[in-house]
Design a protein that fits this description.
mainly alpha; 3 helices
């Protein structure tokens, strides 16, 4: 398996994203996955622009979704 293969890049990226989403993975491991994933999609010249965009979108969604839920809870308490 070669890291320059497009299917490897997509599969590897999806694996790292799945580790980020998993509550069964320790926080330090998820942090490492996030750092590695960010570095991988930012610096690997063989990763397609589409993969970079879809990965960034998924990461943003993971950050925004809990924030919205938390904000809705806080705003309902304040009412």
């Amino acid at each position: 398996m070669c890291s320059f293969d497009k299917s490897f890049s997509a599969t590897f990226t999806q694996f790292l994203l799945s580790q980020l989403r998993s509550e069964h993975v320790h926080a330090e491991s998820r942090t490492g996955c996030a750092a590695y994933l960010a570095s991988f999609v930012a610096r690997a010249s063989f990763v397609s622009a589409g993969l970079v965009i879809s990965t960034a979108s998924e990461i943003v969604a993971m950050v925004v979704r809990p924030t919205i839920i938390l904000w809705d809870g806080v705003s309902s308490i304040a009412r």
